[in-house]
Structure formats: C-alpha cells, structure tokens
Design goal:
The complex is a heterodimer of chains A (about 300) and B (about 450). Chain A is of the alpha/beta class. Chain A contains twelve helices and nine strands. The N and C termini of chain A lie close together (about 10 Å). By secondary structure, chain B is an alpha/beta fold. Helix content of chain B is about 30%, strand content about 25%. Chain B has 13 helices and 20 strands. The chains are: A alpha/beta (about 300), B alpha/beta (about 450). Chains A and B meet through helix 4 of A and helix 6 of B.
Chain lengths: ~300, ~450
C-alpha cells in the first residue's frame, strides 16, 4: 500500500486515514532499528536528497538514517556549503537537483511555503522537513506516534501546546494532526505569540500555562527562540520562564499520568527545567526514536514498490 | 485637419450628465460637437447650442473618418491616478512605451506615474525626462507625480513648486509612507499654495513590521507574517487630522480596509477636503488569493477580507471613494518567482481594470455612469485637468470606446505590459476597450 500523493507538505491536507496509514507503517518499521543489521533492502536504488537551508541536528540526521536503513542513497546538502551562498535561487537549485534525477527531496527552509513551491517545480517527491512558521509534518507524525504508543489511542485525549504558537511550525502541524485524530487541543502562550484566528483551527486558546496543563494528558513544550525577545515579544527570558516555563512546581498540578513532549532542541531552564526534561514524565527521547520510524514510513509510502 | 466621427454609440459623459445614443465629432485634437438622440446638449459655456434632430453630424463632410460605434459605449478615456511606469531606472520591468501601450489597451488615455523611479522624480529634470519620453514614445498622456520628499527619504521636502511648474499633477512618496508627521504637515501646508493634491500611501511601518500579507486566519494558516489593518487605519486617521490642521488637499491612495473607509467617510461628512481611491484588486480579491503562496497576490497594501470588500463597495456607492486607480506595479518574473516572503510587492492592472470595474455595475454597486465618473471625471477634477475626463465641446479628444459584452480570457503572455505579474491570468472577463483615442488619434484598436 502506498500513499496516493506525490508529496508530504502539510498535515492540514492529509486525511485521517492517510495519517493512520503512516502511523501504522511507522510502527512496523520500528523493529528494523532494533535489529543488529539495521537495514532493509526496500528502497535500494532510490536517491534521496536532504536539502537543508537551516541548521538542524535531529531532523536531518533522522531523515538520513531513515533513508539509509531503507537502503536508499541519501545525499545531504546544507545551504551554508552549497551554491545558495553564491546567490542561487530556490528555483534554480531545484531545477539543477532535478536534473540529477532524485526520487525524493527533503526540504528544510526558513520561508513558509518553500516546500510547496519546490513541489510545484520538480517531478520527484518532496517532503517538507519544516518551512518557516508554516508546517513540520514529520515532527507532528512522530509526536502522534509517540502519544499513540503511550495511550493506545488519540481520540479523546487532551493535548496542551505551550509557547510561541505564532512562529511554530511544530504547533501548526500538531494542532491539525491531533484534532484530525480526535484529540482536544489547547494552546497557551503570551498573547504576543498567539497568532490571529488560531482558534478557527478548532483549538482552544488560554494564556495561563497552569490552566492549560491542569487536565492535559499530553503537554507539548515548544522551543522559545531567544531572538524573539529582541523583537520584543516578551520582555525577558526570566519573565518568560517564570510565566510559561514548565517546572516541577507547575507540573505538580497536572494529571499523574501526564506525558511531556518537546520537539527539541530544548533550552534547559527556559521553557522546561532540567528535572522535568529528564524526569519520568518526559518522552523526549522516545520522540527522537520514533522520528526515524516515521521517516522510514514516509519514504516507503511515497517511494516504495513500483510507480503507479 | 483630422476629423473623426464616432457614430451611433451609447455616449456617457458623467461630467455633463449625458447618457444616450448619439454621435461625437472630433476635429484635430478636440471634441468639436456631440449630439445625443432626443436630448439637448449643452455647449462649453452652458448655453443650449443645438436641438437634436434627424440630421447626423458630419453629414456631407469629405475627408471625414467614421467609426461605427453602434452597440458600443463611448465615454471619456480613463484616467489612472496611480501607476508605476518604472522608467527611468527599471526599464526591465516596464517602460513608458510599454506601460502606455498597456494603458491604451485598457481604455486609459492618461496615466499618472508615481515618483519611485531611479532616479526618483523629485526634481524638474526627471519630470522633464519623463514627459519628453512620453511625448516621443508614449501611446497615452503621462502625468508625472512628484515626490513629496527628496529621494523619497521622508526627511526634507522636494522642490514642489518647480515640480508643479514642470508638469507634475500631484505629489506623493507612494511606496513609502511619510513616517514623520511633522514633514507630512509641511507637505500639505506647502502644497496649498500650488493647489496640489497630496497623495498618501498610508502605512504605519512600525506596526506593519516585516509583514507580507493581511493579518488574519489565512496568514496564521500559511505561517506568513501579517500586516494588521490598523497599520493603514492609523495613518489614514493621522493624515485626516493633518488635513484638518493644514486645510491641504489630501488624497488617500489604494484604500484597503473597512476602518479607513469609515474614517474617510466621517472626514468628508465633516466637510474636510479629503478624497480616496481604491484599486480593482482590493474590491475583487481577498487574502485567500495568497493560498498556495501565490506571489501574484502579494502587494502593499495587502489583499484584505470580504468584510473589507463589502465596506469598500459601500464606500464606492455612497461617494466616500472618489476614484478607481490601478496601482499598476510591474515586476520582473525573477522578483516574483521566489519564496513568498522574498517576493516583490505589486501587480499589473491597466489591462484588467475595466472588466473588473464593470462587475461593480453588474453587482449593482455603481451605475455605469457613476463608474465612468470614478475612472475619468473625478480623477481629472482631482488633478485639476479641466479639458480631460469629459466629452464637452472643446475638451481634449481622449475617448474610450468599449464593448461591454465582449467576453475574453486574460492571457498574461498576451498583455502589452512588459511584466506578467497578474493574479487574474486565466480569468474570464466581460468588457473590453475596442478603440482608444488620444488627442483625436486612435492609439489602440482591436
């Protein structure tokens, strides 16, 4: 079974059954990473290009490992060492890469919409690995997988997403993903970081972390980018941390079986305290593990088998 | 002498309350005579010159060229208060030649061009250059707009007196707001002695920040930075206050929000000397046109919401908005074919304006005569052009002949403009200029 689509650009345009297919496929691929020989021949002869215009450890490595475990040839290009520094446009880069006949391009880009633009320009598959403040679908899929593993289902769960919702592609993808699978989503953050009309996605908006986490099953802490302080969106890191940082005191009022997610990289002591990040409620490293499985599933479902 | 008779069309001249089947006779560069079936037509000084009768104009005239306009609309050529011709400096986007050809194809006979060329039109030599090029190569009349401030920097006033004397019809720093209220006050005050219109691009840049589209649910979904409508409203309110203070002539460019429409309406009710224009795209498209990261839906001010469109239409209907202007802003494909946040602002508009405007008539927002007034008589009045925007005897023979029922599909590749940046590519349109006459000469026909 394959996905009947060329690209994975957003969670917004994935149907519920597509999401469920990706999650169950990912679940079955988890076992590959536990083997001594961590490789299946499924995508032998396929070429995957990881084109990264932004710094990334987790996502880029995860896509690369996923490709290699599927026996695809993975090539990594980062903007800082490519012709981008010589002023080449995304369009020209896309056309040149396409001339080398890849099967899939994985794109991380600082501009919202870049992956959609790329997907229109090239015939091969495109996976959005994060575009500006828009979406980061593989992150939401690995979060969904992690939560589903823990609770066995997503329907009916209460999810709290805390932090800078305005600039977060992780938040957007997760709001769509969890709502599509039947969870209730609450977002909370300073009003300067809650984007206009976000409640129209179906989520609830609160401004106090205490209220948001009170009956949550899942707390997802977002990374606060320190340059947002320079833009004046919050006065000081100290104040942000005091109001919206998750520590064991705030967590004491949460449910006893709550789990904590964070897409990483974490700012220890800013949006999350070390004892919480490393504590028993944290599933942060489980997310990373599931990231590889989800990306293997995406490659398989887009590139596996013969082209229809 | 060149004599041209336009016969049997529906002649509409809003400035003189004319609407009927009739003939227009052109002699040389001027309108010689106009006759409407069953109507008495007034001459230049308001006296009754002739009763209509069965005799046709130009009868038994030799050397007369006749245009059969039956089934067509004959009206004053359109006057666009707001275009960017890009010459001098950005000839790869548009030239005075290509821009005026696009204008002619859209039924425009005069177009005002903004000062943000390179060099900026902030001194007489640039104004004279533009007018000379327009004389040599232009298909239609070009009306330069001078810069309010030197280099559009918003620091010191341009030599506004000399700009006016060399042919500028208004002043504007369009593309950039005049951020400093003190300087804007001086501009409005200083321009009074020349009775010049001050055209304001209203935007609070601190509030607009690095926004790239309208702020709202669509920008949130797309992850693009928003520009709230308050960024426009605040500056409109400021400029109204300055107009009240200075008694200057303020014209609000490309109004886009319901808040601004309300502010202008209120100012007019208080008797202030304030006018406003809207672009066809701001009453046709909403911010949803951006979905898919369509850079041809990126402009400043940005496309807003259906509520704003409704308010703009009410403003057009009740006279709050005086004119329709295109904000024709050609951009090269290299500047549009990029990531949305990196793309240049602006769309071309001269060749798509008329059919979009005619939708206002079919939607019962405006009568045909009211629409034509907003495209001709009103802009002429705002610029103080007494012999334009009307078909009165003795006026400049600048005329648009329009087939209101002509259906056509926009093909960006076929447009006369040098640039292709239109969100209306592929749109089905109704209404097309079929002949455009400037100073008695046919400059466009199809």
């Amino acid at each position: 079974m394959r996905l009947k689509r060329k690209d994975i650009l957003t969670i917004e345009d994935l149907a519920r059954d597509e999401i469920e297919l990706i999650l169950s496929t990912a679940q079955s691929f988890k076992e590959v990473s536990e083997r001594e020989i961590k490789k299946v021949p499924t995508l032998r002869g396929r070429t995957i290009i990881n084109l990264f215009y932004e710094a990334s450890t987790r996502t880029r490595t995860s896509f690369e490992i996923a490709a290699k475990r599927m026996s695809a040839d993975a090539i990594n290009i980062s903007a800082s060492t490519s012709s981008v520094v010589k002023g080449e446009t995304l369009k020209d880069t896309a056309k040149n890469l396409e001339a080398m006949n890849p099967d899939c391009i994985v794109l991380r880009h600082p501009s919202s919409g870049a992956s959609e633009i790329l997907a229109r320009l090239v015939k091969c598959s495109v996976i959005n690995a994060g575009d500006g403040s828009h979406e980061h679908p593989s992150q939401a899929l690995l979060d969904l997988l992690t939560v589903r593993e823990r609770f066995e289902k997503i329907e009916g769960l209460k999810i709290a997403i805390i932090g800078d919702i305005s600039h977060s592609r992780v938040a957007r993808s997760n709001i769509y993903g969890f709502i599509k699978l039947g969870a209730e989503v609450t977002v909370a953050g300073p009003p300067t970081m809650i984007p206009s009309g976000i409640e129209k996605t179906g989520c609830r908006v609160l401004y106090k972390i205490e209220d948001a986490i009170k009956d949550a099953d899942v707390i997802m802490m977002l990374r606060i980018q320190l340059e947002r302080q320079k833009a004046g969106l919050f006065p000081t890191v100290r104040e942000y941390s005091r109001l919206f940082g998750l520590d064991s005191i705030k967590l004491a009022n949460a449910k006893k079986d709550v789990v904590i997610l964070h897409p990483g990289p974490i700012n220890r002591g800013v949006e999350i305290s070390s004892d919480v990040a490393d504590g028993p409620y944290s599933l942060i490293l489980g997310q990373v593990k599931n990231g590889v499985a989800v990306r293997m599933a995406l490659f398989y479902l887009l590139l596996g088998g013969s082209r229809e | 002498m060149n004599r041209l008779l336009i016969k049997g069309g529906r002649v509409i001249d809003p400035a003189n309350g004319v609407d009927g089947i009739g003939d227009v006779l052109i002699e040389g560069e001027k309108i010689k005579e106009i006759r409407i079936e069953g109507q008495r037509v007034k001459g230049p000084k308001g006296q009754r010159v002739k009763d209509s009768d069965t005799r046709t104009l130009g009868h038994s005239d030799t050397g007369l060229r006749t245009i059969d306009a039956s089934g067509l609309l004959v009206c004053p050529g359109f006057i666009d208060m707001h275009t960017h011709l890009r010459e001098p400096g950005y000839e790869y986007k548009e030239t005075i030649r290509t821009g005026t050809m696009a204008a002619a194809a859209g039924g425009f006979t005069s177009i005002a061009c903004m000062a943000n060329t390179n060099p900026v039109n902030d001194n007489a030599s640039v104004t004279r250059y533009i007018l000379k090029k327009a004389m040599e190569e232009g298909a239609v009349n070009v009306l330069p707009i001078g810069a309010i401030s030197k280099g559009l920097k918003g620091e010191t006033l341009s030599e506004i007196g000399e700009l006016k004397d060399s042919g500028c019809v208004a002043i504007s720093d369009d593309g950039r707001p005049v951020a400093n209220s003190g300087l804007m006050r001086l501009a409005m005050e200083y321009a009074r002695q020349f009775n010049l219109l001050v055209i304001s691009h209203c935007e609070d840049t601190g509030l607009a920040g690095d926004g790239v589209m309208n702020e709202g649910f669509v920008s949130t979904k797309l992850g693009l930075k928003g520009i709230p409508d308050a960024a426009e409203d605040i500056m409109v309110a400021r400029d109204i206050a300055l107009a009240e203070l200075t008694k200057g002539r303020l014209h609000i460019a490309h109004i886009s929000t319901k808040g601004s429409v309300a502010l202008v309406r209120n100012a007019k009710q208080r008797g202030l000397n304030i006018t406003a224009e809207v672009t066809p795209h701001h009453f046709t498209l909403t911010d949803e046109a951006v979905i898919g990261y369509n850079t041809n839906a990126k402009m400043n001010p940005p496309l807003r919401t259906m509520q704003d469109i409704d308010a703009i239409k009410r403003g057009l209907k009740d006279g709050t908005i005086d004119a329709i202007a295109t904000d024709h802003a050609p951009q090269d494909s290299d500047e549009k074919d990029v990531e949305f946040d990196k793309a240049a602002n602006g769309i071309i508009g001269l060749e798509t304006a008329l059919p979009l405007c005619l939708r206002l008539v079919s939607d019962n927002v405006l009568t045909l005569s009211e629409l034509i007034a907003k495209l001709s008589a009103n802009p002429a009045k705002l610029f103080g052009l007494n012999s334009k925007g009307t078909l009165k005897v003795g006026a400049d023979a600048d005329i648009a002949i329009v087939d209101l029922n002509k259906e056509w599909i926009v093909d960006a590749k076929e447009l006369k403009s040098k640039s292709r940046n239109t969100p209306f590519d592929g749109w089905k349109m109704k209404g097309k200029a079929v002949k455009t006459i400037v100073a008695g000469k046919i400059v466009y026909e199809r």
